[in-house]
């Protein structure tokens, strides 16, 4: 569905991704794991076209995506739920949600989709008129996911959705990601919470210093000695 081939990505003169290749298959949950600074967020930002690869290509269903503007990536159905949520704190929850459906089919269907988001996250409906900055961290993460859903995505890319949340909320967010996937949305997930994500994903890639160094099913990687030592503290 999404094919990343041999991309090199730089911040200015600093190269942070080296010849990175991987693919995301339709309907799967794919996880990228790696230590801090390995380049996971940079990959997601590059797919979203917030960064442009210096070489290599990104294809979605056979068509080139790299060098297209970010709004076109969203219109293609690829949405990014960023680390830190990036909501508008002084706008209401519902206004933030509607920011996810500003054009095309998503705009035409926004009331219907909003109903669906409220069904998934009843707490957002209860707080729909509340200023977003006053929500708890978990509720803000729900709002960020809800805003992503408002654009009717085919692929949702989550960057560290569990960051800073209490364990009970982490479970809730992962459960929601599974449910969104079961409703037909392909998931690309970047997480520090390696144990949990390997148990819920179909496949995973391991990144080290900007390079892909390992690939496998979640089950296989969870029992790999190097992965256990580096990420699971076993
Ligand atoms: P983390 O979990 O800490 O976010 P990550 O695997 O997502 O880690 P990236 O955020 O993609 O890693 O960072 C990869 C490398 O790029 C790091 O060395 C980081 O310091 C560097 N980097 C990230 N953002 C920038 C930036 N805006 N300018 C310069 N260097 C950056």
Write a brief structural summary.
By secondary structure, this protein is of the alpha/beta class. The chain is built from 11 helices and 10 strands.
How would you sum up this structure, described in words?
The structure is a single chain. This protein is α/β, with parallel strands linked by helices. It is 38% helix and 26% strand. The chain is built from eleven helices and ten strands. The chain has helices at residues 40-47, 70-75, 93-98, 104-108, 110-120, 122-126, 137-149, 167-182, 194-200, 218-222, 225-232, and strands spanning 2-11, 14-24, 29-34, 55-60, 63-64, 78-81, 155-159, 186-190, 203-208, 211-217. The strands form two sheets. The chain has a six-stranded mixed sheet, sandwiched between helices. The protein has a four-stranded antiparallel sheet with strand order 2-1-4-5, with helices on one face. α8 (167-182) links the parallel β7 (155-159) and β8. The two termini are 34 Å apart. The mean pLDDT is 92. Bound molecules: adenosine-5'-triphosphate. Adenosine-5'-triphosphate is lined by residues 11, 14, 16, 34, 36-42.
Layout: helices, strands, pairs:
Elements (H helix, E strand, L loop, with lengths): L1 E10 L2 E11 L4 E6 L5 H8 L7 E6 L2 E2 L5 H6 L2 E4 L11 H6 L5 H5 L1 H11 L1 H5 L10 H13 L5 E5 L7 H16 L3 E5 L3 H7 L2 E6 L2 E7 H5 L2 H8 L2
Parallel strand pairs: 3-8, 3-9, 6-7, 7-8
Antiparallel strand pairs: 1-2, 1-4, 4-5, 9-10
This protein binds adenosine-5'-triphosphate.
